[in-house]
Write a structure and sequence with these properties.
It is a single chain. The protein is globular, with a radius of gyration of 20 Å. The model has no long low-confidence stretch (mean pLDDT about 95). With about 290 residues, the protein is of the alpha+beta class. The protein has helices spanning about 25-40, 50-75, 80-95, 165-180, 190-200, and strands at about 100, 115, 120, 135-145, 150-155, 205, 215, 220-225, 245, 250, 255-260, 265-270, 275, 280-285, 290-294.
């Protein structure tokens, strides 16, 4: 096979660990992947494909991640500090048996990212950042449970938000939906980004190029990188079992970003205008996709 992994005999146990015979499990997917490879297409290594057991593990992790964001939604509001949000996320995750994936990841000091207004991503929670009426904030949460990773984020409008910011938040969520609608098993990863970018531009916004989604499941960040300014018909083949996030960062103004913050993490829009992001995690199935975290 193209990826160097062993090919079982037809009646041998499948490489995925399902306990099924190879001919009853991955043999057809493997044959199609090999064909795609021989046609010069970008295909995932089979080690990236999530098994049924993996998906169940990710779902258990995601139940905590979803619960965290539900808890934040119930308690966030004017006067809340982003440090309080970090404490909520940490406590909820640990109390439910998980570990915040953000905490100490490559030196990141907190359990969640809280990006306010013009902050594109990786905003660090602080007792000095007090949410006020009219703010918009992205809360990006990731969880580890029993070695499985989940990841999703949501936007929150704080109190009464002006119509332009509310529209940005709403359209960014619609961009995620456009990306999901572009998914076809054995289609291309680039179709997703192309759909997201086209809709954002149609609505008068721009999409950040330097950051995007990523594969996830057994590690926090796996292949593929999921860009949102891609061309249709390009990128990795969407084989069943590929698991990744869709998380476009959509700017009210230009797409340029500022990465000069001395904390080494927080990214802002270069023009200082607001930005928004929603994130979901999914796995490709034989008939479409299944949402795992949102």
């Amino acid at each position: 096979m193209y990826d160097g992994m062993t090919v079982p005999g037809r009646n041998d146990e499948c490489w995925c660990g399902s306990g099924k015979k190879y001919k009853k499990c991955h043999i057809d997917i493997d044959a199609r992947l090999q064909d795609c490879y021989e046609r010069g297409l970008e295909v995932p290594y089979r080690s990236l494909l999530k098994t049924a057991a993996d998906i169940e593990g990710i779902k258990r992790s995601a139940a905590i991640n979803i619960g965290v964001l539900d808890y934040v939604a119930e308690h966030i509001g004017p006067g809340v500090t982003t440090e309080q949000i970090d404490q909520w996320v940490h406590d909820y995750t640990v109390e439910h048996g998980g570990t915040p994936a953000d905490l100490n990841f490559e030196g990141y000091p907190k359990s969640v990212c809280t990006s306010v207004n013009e902050e594109v991503c990786h905003g660090i929670p602080s007792p000095d950042v007090v949410l006020k009426e009219g703010d918009i904030v992205n809360v990006d949460c990731s969880t580890i449970l029993d070695g499985y990773f989940s990841d999703s984020s949501r936007m929150f409008c704080i109190g009464e938000v002006d119509p332009e910011r509310e529209r940005l938040v709403r359209v960014t969520k619609e961009c995620v939906q456009k990306g999901l609608e572009a998914i076809k098993p054995w289609g291309f990863l680039g179709d997703i980004g192309a759909a997201v970018n086209a809709y954002a531009q149609e609505m008068g916004y721009s999409v950040v190029r330097e950051f995007g989604g990523h594969g996830i499941g057994l590690e926090f960040h796996e292949d593929p990188f999921v860009g949102f300014v891609s061309e249709p018909g390009t990128g990795m083949v969407l084989a069943p079992g590929v698991c990744f996030t869709i998380e476009p960062m959509v700017n009210m103004g230009g797409c340029e970003i500022d990465m000069s913050d001395p904390n080494g993490w927080t990214v802002r829009t270069k023009d200082g205008l607001p930005t928004a992001q929603w994130e979901v995690q999914l796995v490709i199935t034989e008939t479409g996709y299944e949402l795992l975290s949102w």
